[in-house]
Each structure stands twice: as C-alpha cells, then as structure tokens.
Amino acid sequence: MPAQASPATEPYRDSSSLIASGTPGLSWRELTNAACGAAIPPYTAAMVLGVGVDVVEVERLRKLIARHGRRFLRRVFTAREIAWCGRRAQPEVHYAARFAAKEAVLKALGTGWSEGLAFTQVEVRRARSGAPSVVLTGAARARARKAGAARFHLSLSHDAGVAVAFVLAESDRR
Length: 174
Ligand SMILES: CC(C)(COP(=O)(O)OP(=O)(O)OC[C@H]1O[C@@H](n2cnc3c(N)ncnc32)[C@H](O)[C@@H]1OP(=O)(O)O)[C@@H](O)C(=O)NCCC(=O)NCCS
Fold this sequence. Notes:
Elements: H1 15-20, H2 28-35, E1 47-57, H3 58-76, H4 79-86, H5 91-109, E2 122-126, E3 132-136, H6 138-147, E4 149-159, E5 162-171
Antiparallel strand pairs: 1-5, 2-3, 4-5
Helix pairs in contact: 3-5, 4-5
This protein binds coenzyme A.
Coenzyme A binds at residues 94, 97, 126, 129-132, 156-159.
C-alpha cells in the first residue's frame, strides 16, 4: 500500500482545494494566504505585509520620452529595462507598466519617493515565461528590509491606453 503523505510533508499544490477540503490544523492566516492565491506552502507561515497598485497612462510616458529622451529613461529605468522595452514594437506601453510597478512597490512598502530612494532601485525583470518580478537595490532594498519585506509578487497588464501594476509584499514574520 502506498504511504499516505502526511500534511507536513505533502507538497503545496492548489490553494482552492486546500480550502474546499477544510484541511485541519491550518490557521486563519494560512487559509487567507491560500485564498489569495499566494504560492506559500500551507505550513509555512508568511504574512502579507502590504499591497500596492498603480495605473499609468501610456500617452503620458510617450510624451515624457519624446520630450526628454534618454535622459528621462536613464533616470527612471535600469539599463536592463531600457534594453528590453526598447526592443518592443511599442516601448512606451512596457515602460508605462514598469513605471506603474515602481510606484506600486513603494505603496506596498507604505513609503514614498523619499529616504534617498530612486526609481532605478526598483527593477522589473522578466522570466522566460513572460512573468514579471521585482528586484530591489540600494536604498530601496534597505527600506524593504527595514519594513520586513522578504518577497514581492508583481502582476502587470496593459490595454486601452493604460498600464496597471499590482504588487504584494510578503514578510516571513509571523
Ligand atoms: C500572460 C498573458 C495571458 C497576458 O496576456 P494579455 O492579456 O495579452 O496581456 P496583458 O496586457 O494583460 O499583460 C501583459 C503582461 O503580462 C505579464 N505576463 C506575461 N506572461 C506572463 C506569465 N507567464 N505569467 C505572469 N505574467 C505574465 C507581463 O508582465 C506582461 O507585461 P510586459 O509585456 O510589459 O512584460 C499572455 O502573455 C500569455 O498567455 N502568456 C503565456 C505565454 C505565451 O503564450 N507566450 C507567447 C509565446 S509565443
């Protein structure tokens, strides 16, 4: 007879099935994290530290790029972001999404563009699948550490002249 997986060792699969089955022993926080779709193993407590959302009009970015060119790009975006967006058919769309992501990260951290933070310290990377992620450097990284943020989850979308970014900051603190 195959050994039955114990709840402690069973790999995390699907949060909705966890909730539907009413898995015993899960705390309310673990259940709500699972309900949010967070990719968290059910017995590893993680806490939602904050969320941030931002919407950017693509035309606004297009005008800023047209007026200030590379000087604007280099002040706001990293070399990696500029290289990737610059190769797209409509770079301004992707720049707008990344601009929104940078603002959304700060909202998730509950801070603004102060404390020595720079736009380029929040970088949006892209996995081979297309999925975006956030990498922080410098003062932004220090600010995130101070706030207790261990991970960020990012989602981007763009349509009808606007780009939107949603960020969830997660802490390992219980
Ligand atoms: C994810 C997907 C559904 C989004 O499609 P969409 O509704 O047309 O696009 P949206 O404007 O809402 O979102 C675009 C953003 O989705 C994000 N995205 C793309 N692929 C993603 C993925 N696999 N997982 C999570 N997010 C993804 C990106 O951040 C993208 O923004 P960017 O291009 O500026 O980096 C679509 O890209 C998809 O099906 N991807 C799967 C991989 C695929 O089929 N690739 C094409 C191979 S030829």
